[in-house]
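Encode chain A's predicted structure.
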Amino acid sequence: MSAATAPASARDALAMIQAGLDHLAASDAAQWDPETQALVLRGLEQDEAVLTAARASALVAFTAGQGHCADGDYSPRAWLMHQTGITRAAAAAHTAWARRAHEHRLVLAAMAAGQVSESYARAICGWTDELPADSREAADEILLAAAERLVALRTAPCLGQLTPWHVTARRPTPEMPLRPSVRRLEVDRPVQCHQASQHITCSKYRNE
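Encoded structure for chain A:
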């Protein structure tokens, strides 16, 4: 197969994407060998992450330029519902990723590079959103590195162990006081996966 030609414009890029998806959708997946089926499933999941990052980037720019106003819509979410034929819930999910593009730039960059799935990325953002704003980027970096390492080890289900057990946002208590309105980020427990002998230890970072 010849090397793919780089698209000359956004319109060309969309046409190439559509052509590739049309080919996959029209193919008889039952005729593929298991290796090809697995290749397609892995590739589509990676592409979903890149798609989410690309959509978020476009929506950020569209919102900044108030592009929705040209069609008489009062918000980007309303425009998405009316112009792209999606539900309110789906439009809210898209605008949420546009918001995360500002707040979680490392996560969006990892998605754009196909290094983390959309579902892992969304979970990471949800966990670190519980932290003070000036602690989120460091936490995102730690969890992205852990996620990439786990995927490389083919132990992806173990990312569930990186829940707030390992990234905790603690509010001050009488027994463990902190400065007013400051919470502490602790990422200091090893992540031991039952499927592999390796473990990941996230370094400790504290905002105090």
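The mean pLDDT is 78.
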